[in-house]
Amino acid sequence: MHVIVVGGGEIGFALAQALAAQHQVFVIDQEPQVGDRFESIDVQFLLGSATSADLLTRAGVAKADVLIACTGLDEVNIVACALANRLGSPRTYCFVSRQEFLDLDQHAKGLAQFGIRRVIWPEAQLAASIERIVLAPGAVDAEVFAEGAVHLLEYRLDAGSPLIERRLADLQLPHGALIVAVRRGDGVFVPRGDSRLAEGDKAVVMGLPEALAEVGRRVTAGESNQRQRVTIVGGGDVGLRLAERLEASASIDLTIIERDQSRGELLASRLHRTLVLNGDGTDLELLESEDIGRSDVLVSVIDNDERNLLTSLLGRQLGARRVITRVGRRSNLRLFERVGIDVAISARGAAVASLLNEVEGGAARLLAVVEEGAGRVLELDVPAEFRSRALRDMPAAPGSIVGAIVRGGAAIVPGGGDHIHAGDRLIVFTTEAAAGHARDIFTGVRE
Questions:
Q1: Can you list the domains of the chain with their CATH numbers?
Q2: What is the pTM of this model?
Q3: Share of the chain above pLDDT 70, in %
Q4: What percent of the chain has pLDDT over 90?
Q5: Where are the beta strands (DSSP E) in 382-434?
């Protein structure tokens, strides 16, 4: 494919790096120093603005298959997509950073009139991801698939966890729940029945909502039945959107801290069950006076990694039970975890991974990335020519496991005796290295 990436920042670099091996990639950016980072990968870098028809023409927009606009300026991204569609017919993907553009896209005469195939707001995905984690006490990741029929939860196991030091086959998990992956150190693997979990592991559990609720009660010793006191630091678009979502839960008492007074007044007018405090989330005196240490969950979503880290460490020191922190630079994810942050989360990583899968197409859809992409959850359509057979009779798929079979709107968490039929949808957990093999086995198609 011929791909044009507009914007050479963190998102643009990650996209270009992933696509360059198999496709012809042009990168456009108007900052000369940005081009230096692309010298190590096989792309063509063009200096200038993508709002220039001449520059887009030099990038081959007339024959381009895909254009991805991911600069830090929403208006530039929209104009670049619109101009590309006048000069050629690429599939256009537009990143935005403000909610009004996402809202505009919902209207029939919104951004679609510019020929934009899909509008992506990573911050909206971030708010939704944090909400799921907050509503799953004790979890460090939470996802929902198949229109809510299948859930995924990830837990960090401490010394007192009832899941450690026993064979998986002996854990007697509730019917409809399956441990599909384990993060141990820097590696991710799919466990077997004789595998044993250890202190410090992260266990990824997939299954039906009722079964995973029972797993949660076991892991958290009943914490899921309690009210939660949640404090959000940062009232920007992410903080506001998260607070609006969490207000729908009657079991949450919510506080939000915002240092800009006018923004705080906006928050107070938009939120109905939330205490809005005007102040700096890095101010220890403020955090102590408001008793932030009693929070069950502290969420720091300031648009600055350093301030987020300081706020989170202060909250941890004051006694917050669980700390969730927004990370802008993916290189900081592991660092944040190593200094004691329970959940360090980057919206951009998930947005990039899902977009890559959509751009490249194929028989598999990427539903989620786990542990910075080391694990992936794929949705596979079983083709019409597939011969029905029991799961135990399928060829071995090391590094992969079928977490659920979706058939006729219902989900089954399968055992070895369950059959896979043509037309089924499979929710498969796989390591990054094993993804291609899993697609071969279950669909007969290799992307």
A1: 2-120 (3.40.50.720), 126-224 (3.30.70.1450), 227-349 (3.40.50.720), 350-443 (3.30.70.1450)
A2: 0.83
A3: 94
A4: 69
A5: 389-390, 400-407, 410-412, 419-420, 425-431
